[in-house]
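[step 3/7] fold_predict: job queued, chain A
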Amino acid sequence: MPNYTCEYFETDRGDRPVEEFIDSLQDSTQRKFFYKKSLLEEFGPRLPFPHARKLVHDIYELRFEGPNETGRVLYFFVDGNRIIFTNGFKKKSQKTPEKENQSCGAKAGNLFEKKGEVIMARTNVDRHLERKLRNSLFRELYELEMQKAQIAKLLIAERAKRGLTQGQLARKLGVSQQQISKIENGNFTDLKVVQKVLLTLGHSIRVVAVPLRSKTRKDLKAA
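[step 4/7] structure written:
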């Protein structure tokens, strides 16, 4: 059960800007968004850089990257364990656009009009994910991402517990910062490095070959 719940901000007309933004991205980048969402639901405001960072006025930035594009989603917390996604954009420079900060801040301000009572329309992000998972190929690759996320969470938990950067954890475990980054982002290919890191943290890794669903095999042939 996640510690936090992610929701999309919804306009008076029923539009959900971040959901529309995610739909505009390549499937591989969309899966990375949902990957990072799972990390955010686990760690909340403790999710460390470079996966998330605090900007201004309690506004945070969720950072994710696909093979060909980089995305950002801005959010804030309400009621302790609820996360509201307000703005999404492709990253083209190192600095977050000021207009995005202002837009997110305005939505955060409008959220509380009656002594902190939440009155803004919002939609649970999991409903969006459920629709995506109706595609068998998307589901297979998403489930693989979630397996990698379980490994990533072990490293991130260690960093969050001790207040370490990726570089500091890397030196502690005897690997490079780049290797830690790849594991945390679910982009690792060297299982020897993963095994070394997990053994140091008191865990191991098990590799199992799982047959694809028949619908997925058909989708792969058609692709």
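[step 5/7] annotate
The chain has two domains: 5-132, 136-222.
Residues 136-222 form a domain with the 434 Repressor (Amino-terminal Domain) fold (CATH 1.10.260.40).
exit 0
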